[in-house]
Amino acid sequence: MDCRLYLKGLVLFVAMSWQQTGLAQENWRDTLTVLNRQIASQPWSTDLHLRKAAANLQLKQWEYAIEEYKEVLQHEPHNPAALFYRAYANTHLRRFDLARNDLNDLLILVPRHFEGRLSLAVVLQHLGRKQDALDQLNQTVEQHPDSAVAYAARANIERDMKHDDAALYDWQRAEELSPRDPTYVVSHVDLLLVLERRKEARRVLDAAVSRGIPKGMLLEWYEKCKR
Q1: Which phi and psi (to 5°) does residue 211 adopt?
Q2: In 61-113, where does DSSP find H-type helix?
Q3: How far apart are CA 103 and CA 121, in angstroms?
Q4: Euclidean distance between CA atoms 29 and 23, whole angstroms
Q5: Given this model, what pLDDT does residue 26 score?
Q6: 123 sits in which H/E element
Q7: Is the pLDDT confidence value at 25 over 70?
Q8: CB neighbours (10 Å) of residue 43?
Q9: Alpha-carbon gap, residue 216 to 208, rounded angstroms
């Protein structure tokens, strides 16, 4: 598994894990129309503007969303949701410096914000600041030692930085914390195969099957162990 693809997926997971609301099953354009009417007819409501921005995000209207979050922050400079999602929108527009600024502000307000720190690590990687990204992920693991996602995120950047032993340890910890998730298994095995440690990779696969992961999901990786 390409660690860069994993990280792209992680950005989406991080943002959308906050974004799922009761509106998720509705037609977003109709929702936006309703929200615009409500905003026009009522006094200021932070909730309405955040919901409108959420609809903009769902429709990939990044600039409109950013303007909504800007307005929210003018009324409430320390609103965590506005800071987080404005960073998310700016990341999609590849405005990584702006995204970093908002995430830094968010983490000053909420130092243990799990999604915010993960997102900051990803943004820092986009900016080419791998060591700073690793430092953020070290803090994430310290703050959330029971999170498989935290270890997996750190393993990916460690692999990118050629810290192979550290990455192997973190994949193992991710597997221990989420033993039925095949994503961590194949990432662990992938690195072992790159390092030409096929017997060890096979043992990791066998252990995963013994934990209940269907062998059929891992057949590709069993084949790679034979090469």
Answers
A1: -85, -5
A2: 62-75, 80-92, 96-109
A3: 10
A4: 11
A5: 54
A6: helix 114-126
A7: no
A8: 6
A9: 12
**Sequential DSSP letters for 163-183:** -HHHHHHHHHHHHHHSTT-HH
Amino acid (1-letter code) at residue 204: V
Q: In angstroms, rounded to a whole number, what is the distance separating the alpha carbons of residues 62 and 65? A: 5
C-alpha to C-alpha distance for 53 and 128, rounded to whole angstroms: 29
Distances, alpha carbon 123 to alpha carbons 92, 118, 196, in Å: 11, 9, 31
Query: If you ran DSSP here, which 8-state letter would residue 19 be given?
Result: H
Please give the Cα distance from 157 to 177 (Å, whole number): 19
Question: Over 60: is that where the pLDDT of 21 sits?
Answer: no
Q: What pLDDT shows up at residue 40?
A: 76
Residues 1 and 79: their CA atoms lie apart, in Å, by 36
Helix then strand then coil, in percent of the chain rounded to 5, is 80, 0, 20
Query: Of how many residues is the chain composed?
Result: 227
The type of residue at 84 is F
From the number of C-beta atoms within 10 Å of its C-beta (0-12, 13-18, 19+), residue 37 rates as: exposed
Q: What is the mean pLDDT of the chain?
A: 87
Q: Distance between CA atoms of 68 and 54, rounded to whole angstroms? A: 9
Average pLDDT over residues 102-106: 97
**What is the separation, in whole angstroms, between the first and last Cα of the chain?**
17
As a whole number of angstroms, the distance between CA 116 and CA 226 comes to 41
Name the residue type at position 82: A
Cα separation, 129 vs 215, in Å, equals: 38
pLDDT digits (tens, 9 = 90+) for 163-205: 999 999 999 999 999 999 999 999 999 999 999 999 999 999 9
